[in-house]
Write a structure and sequence with these properties.
Blueprint lengths: L13 H7 L7 H19 L3 E4 L4 H13 L8 E4 L6 H14 L3 E4 L2 H6 L10 H20 L3 E3 L16 E4 L27 E4 L7 H11 L14 E2 L12 E2 L5 H8 L19 H7 L4
Parallel strand pairs: 1-2, 1-4, 2-3, 4-6
Antiparallel strand pairs: 5-6, 7-8
Length: 295
């Protein structure tokens, strides 16, 4: 492993990616990686006009890394970032640097109408959940409609939140992006349903079988550049999950390196999204958002 700090967004080249895909003992991280790469390639083979959501967080950045591995250093579909304009500024700086260094195709979506009206949580004119719905869910819908993306690759994990545990690797939505959680196709023995009725919107989840700990172990193994907000800032705090600044709170932590985060996660009982304020507005707020098309 390189001794370079994984907090710095250093570019990597295709030869480096190729070296890391050479044969190695089939450890558990390699098994996770292989499954995710298989799903990415299967999606690319089966669906036209794909895009990948990139929230700039650790999960979607690991997913981006896997896509580069799957397609030999090139990402053959655009990355979509739904910009609420309320992200922590360093997140946007990190995004723009990686786009330049890795030569990525980025599509930025914004719900300009709502932003112009000011009906948002920071302006005191909407609840946190309503704000997520208009700026993220509806913002994503606008991007999909404009560019006619029929499939979207998303970095959700089953262990992150109970609603996401109900997902499938290939998860159908209707033409309005609505998710019928009670009617999901079975996925047994790596047999995935990829033949859907015309007009079906598909969400692809290559990280579904990963855990938060797996993600950080993989970041350490691959030396993946992640945003420094994840590391303790000297005041005994760091971000464990990233979202919009008004709704994302740091946790108490002294973890300043990837290895220290891994050690911390092996002993914590605190939920990963404990710093996400919108999850706490109502017991089923997040499930309602996801049923309506949220990420």
């Amino acid at each position: 492993m390189s001794s370079a700090s994984p907090t710095a967004a250093n570019p990597i080249t295709s030869p480096e990616l190729s070296q890391r895909t050479e044969q190695r003992p089939m450890d558990y991280l390699s098994k996770l990686e292989n499954q995710s790469i298989y799903i990415l390639r299967e999606a690319f083979n089966k669906f036209e006009n794909l895009a990948m959501l990139w929230s700039i967080g650790k999960d979607s950045t690991v997913l981006l890394w896997l896509a580069r591995k799957a397609f030999f250093g090139h990402v053959p579909f655009p990355l979509v970032h739904v910009d609420t304009t309320y992200k922590i500024p360093s997140m946007i700086e990190y995004r723009d640097k990686l786009v330049k260094d890795w030569k990525l195709q980025l599509v930025v979506g914004k719900n300009e109408e709502v932003l112009k009206s000011g009906v948002t949580f920071p302006n005191g004119k909407a609840t946190r959940v309503e704000c997520c719905g208009t700026l993220k869910k509806d913002g994503l819908r606008q991007v999909l409609d404009k560019h006619h993306y029929t499939g979207v690759i998303v970095g959700v994990r089953r262990d992150e939140e109970p609603t996401r545990a109900k997902e499938r690797y290939f998860s159908p939505r209707d033409k309005n992006m609505e998710w019928n959680v009670e009617d999901q196709p079975p996925e047994l023995w790596d047999q995935f349903k990829t033949d859907f009725a015309k007009g079906t919107h598909i969400r692809i989840h290559p990280l579904l079988h990963w855990t938060e700990l797996n993600v950080w172990e993989y970041i350490e193994r691959e030396n993946i550049p992640v945003i420094p907000l994840y590391f303790a800032n000297g005041n005994g705090q760091r971000y464990r999950s990233l979202g919009c600044a008004p709704c994302t709170m740091p946790i108490k932590s002294d973890a300043k390196t990837v290895r220290q985060i891994i050690d911390e996660l092996r002993h914590t009982r605190t939920p990963e999204r404990s710093g996400r304020a919108q999850d706490k507005e109502s017991e089923d707020a997040f499930e309602k958002l996801r049923r309506d098309g949220y990420m």
